[in-house]
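Private note to self, pasted from the team thread so I don't lose it. Backbone tokens:
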């Protein structure tokens, strides 16, 4: 199942972990990010991790729930088109 235009990050407001993200913190022209999107290997976990992993570590592949197939920067947040994967 593909879901389009999902807000995955809200700018300038604390999230559940207390982090505040700024729009200029997301470079959608980053070559690594562009390569991951082009090769269909940008994955995500649903919700927040239960452990103390730093936000910039790799995701736990046993918890993968979706694949990001598109990203859009808007004034209020980062939006994504995602494909829900058939995982536990």
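Design output:
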């Amino acid at each position: 199942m593909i879901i389009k235009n999902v807000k995955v990050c809200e700018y300038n407001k604390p999230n559940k972990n207390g982090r505040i993200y700024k729009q200029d913190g997301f470079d959608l022209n980053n070559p690594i990010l562009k390569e991951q999107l082009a090769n269909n290997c940008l994955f995500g976990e649903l919700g927040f991790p239960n452990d103390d992993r730093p936000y910039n570590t790799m995701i736990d592949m046993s918890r993968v729930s979706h694949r990001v197939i598109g990203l859009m920067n808007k004034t209020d947040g980062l939006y994504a088109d995602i494909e829900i994967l058939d995982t536990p």
